[in-house]
Design a protein that fits this description.
Elements lengths: L2 H12 L3 H23 L2 H17 L10 H59 L2 H12 L4 H8 L3 H19 L1
């Protein structure tokens, strides 16, 4: 576009001439879309961004007669729009990764709290068991003794030890489930 013709369109644009805007739009929009697509690698996003740039030009049309080189002006707008786009996406990605890390941290904390509550519930249930069952269960599960070793230490039948361990496990299952 010749600079004299462009200057006339810019003066018309300043006065709200829609035909002048349309002429500038028809000439620069395809170039702008192509330019933006090279950076964004997304034709739809580039088209939207080019539309936004022309909307800003229309909204600020009263300043258009002060523009000496519309080509340079519109490309600097496009460059700034691309910078803002990438900066905005970087902020979104950082926020998303922090949010995911926070969610993972919350899941870990929640799991640890659940494990602590479950451990406390098991300890309370064990303490409520009859003394003989509690002693046998602790020897079996906490001390790691076999049923035979427990029966020898307590001088009771091995089958009695097995029954107490089975009853203790049944008590725990009732509380946990």
């Amino acid at each position: 576009m010749e600079s004299h013709t462009e200057k006339q369109y810019l003066n018309g644009l300043q006065n709200g001439d829609k035909k002048a805007f349309s002429a500038l739009y028809m000439f620069y929009y395809p170039k702008m879309k192509f330019y933006l697509t090279r950076f964004l690698k997304d034709e739809n996003e580039a088209s939207d961004m080019a539309q936004d740039i022309f909307c800003k030009i229309w909204e600020n049309r009263e300043y258009c007669s002060n523009i000496n080189n519309f080509n340079a002006y519109i490309y600097s707008m496009a460059r700034n729009a691309v910078y803002n786009y990438f900066e905005h996406n970087l902020i979104k990605e950082n926020y998303a990764s922090k949010f995911q890390a926070g969610a993972l941290y919350n899941d870990i904390i929640e799991g640890e709290l659940y494990a602590m509550e479950l451990g406390l519930l098991i300890d309370i249930t064990i303490e409520k068991m009859p003394e003989q069952r509690r002693r046998i269960f602790k020897m079996s599960r906490k001390d790691g003794l076999t049923n035979e070793e427990i029966s020898n230490q307590l001088c009771i039948n091995k089958r009695t030890v097995e029954n107490h361990v089975t009853l203790a496990l049944t008590d725990l299952r009732k509380v946990i489930v």
